[in-house]
Input
Amino acid sequence: MATPAMETAEPVFDMAGEGAPELSEAEKQLLREELTKTEDEIATLKQVLLARQKHAAELKRKLGLNPLVELTNDINKGLKVVTDSEAFQKTQEVASATADSVKEKWNGMRNSSLFKSFESKLGSAYNNAKMAASTSIDHLSGAARGPSAANTPAEESMPLPK
Output
């Protein structure tokens, strides 16, 4: 259903693609002249913009600014904006509180008797494995030298297995 304002308004252009709206030759000529002026202004503005961009590039070169420096500066500015934001500050507070809580729990666990018992058992298992590997390597190196070679100091100081 069309509104009354829509029924009385004349279309600016034909939506069906049948052609341009009905204009007199004088109106068409004025529009062509305005189009030409607008296109000339656009071309002039493009030339001015290009000249200004070249001038800016020359100034940057003289100042020692290169794309990498500009990118670094832009990233630093963006990072500062993010870190100064209220959301970042709140997130940082929550993360800090969580880290403190985890540290407390970890230290509490490390001081528990269960952890200390496990730590000592693991340490002794490690030492036993290291000693067994050392003995095995010494035995292999002695076998490679042959039966006439003298015992190594490591073999002499080793206790006999039970």
The chain is about 75% helix and 0% strand. The first helix runs from residue 4 to 8. The CA atoms of residues 140 and 146 lie 10 Å apart.
